[in-house]
Design a protein that fits this description.
CATH topology of the largest domain: Rossmann fold
Distance between the termini: 28 Å
Radius of gyration: 22 Å
Number of helices: 13
Oligomer: single chain
Strand order of the largest sheet: 2-3-4-1-5
Number of domains: 2
Structural class: alpha/beta
Strand content: 5-15%
Shape: elongated
CATH superfamily of the largest domain: P-loop containing nucleotide triphosphate hydrolases
Number of strands: 5
């Protein structure tokens, strides 16, 4: 692999979310601030949507770290990465995340009471409980309704459970269903993650290279940066795939810098992952 060739200590452009590579773009900074503000205000539901690969999972984990690291407002967090669960299964996952002991064969109503009792105890101890649900567009309607019922639990001053929903743009379609109107009406704060602009995009790639150990002169030429941004549309996951392939191609030629032809070749090799208009244009350029 190209690590030794470029003086790197680890792969800079993996597609698995890694908080060690967290890059706070303007869009992520704004979304995180919105989430923290809304949760501090006691809102029951907050929502973040974005295109595939824009960094929603990384933002969710950043939010969890921020909440767990606060000493001024103690917070207990629960994380659901796979929401394709029935309402009962979600209650079991929440109970597990909260460290509760319960009968795994218990009826849904009994599980609800176990979780509710735990939420009351946390409230008495002045601890907030925040549930973060990733890929929330996959939540079944019955499970969404179960979340709404849990959010009904409150003291005279605040909710016992706050829920942060992270999902693809299809989540908005799900929530427009008349069956979800009661839950949707409770989402007072929402954020939208948008692709990286050209300046943030260049800073993003540079940041990941530096985290991975690069300390030399510019590794990506300006034309290659332009091409990678154009092809990826500023979406971090696509950018990682393209940048990784461009580095491999430069290494294969024994080059110490990624040039425009390396970036173009990476785009050609990844046309199946790109937007149709970009794939068609790349095919014409590289024919």
């Amino acid at each position: 692999m190209y690590l030794e060739h470029f003086g790197l200590t680890e792969l800079p452009f993996g597609i698995t979310p890694d908080t060690g590579f967290t890059f706070v773009s303007a869009a992520h900074r704004e979304a995180l601030a919105t989430l923290l503000l809304a949760l501090d205000a006691g809102e029951g539901f907050v929502k973040v949507t974005g295109e595939v690969g824009t960094g929603k999972t990384l933002l969710a984990r950043t939010l969890l770290d921020a909440l767990q690291g606060r000493t001024d407002r103690p917070c207990v967090t629960a994380y659901v990465p796979n929401p394709r669960l029935t309402s009962r299964e979600l209650l079991r996952v929440l109970a597990d995340e909260l460290g509760l002991k319960f009968n795994r064969r218990a009826a849904t109503r009994d599980l609800y009471e176990v979780v509710a009792a735990a939420l009351v105890e946390h409230a008495r101890a002045a601890r907030r409980v925040v549930l973060v649900v990733d890929e929330a567009q996959a939540l079944p309607p019955d499970t969404l309704e179960g979340l709404r019922l849990l959010s009904n639990l409150e003291t005279g001053k605040r909710k016992l459970l706050q829920v942060a929903l992270f999902g693809q743009c299809e989540l908005d379609t799900v929530l427009r269903d008349p069956a979800c109107r009661s839950l949707t009406s409770r989402i007072a704060f929402a954020a939208r993650l948008r692709p990286l602009g050209r300046t943030d995009f260049a800073s993003y790639l540079l940041h990941r290279l530096r985290v991975a150990g690069w300390r030399g002169p510019p590794l990506l030429s300006q034309p290659s940066l332009w091409l990678l941004h154009w092809a990826s549309g500023g979406v971090p996951r696509r950018a990682n795939i393209l940048a990784h392939k461009a580095l491999m191609l430069a290494y294969g030629e024994g080059c110490w810098r990624v040039g425009a032809h390396h970036a173009l070749a990476a785009v050609r090799d990844s046309r199946h992952l790109l937007r149709p208009s970009v794939a068609a244009a790349a095919s014409g350029v590289l024919a």
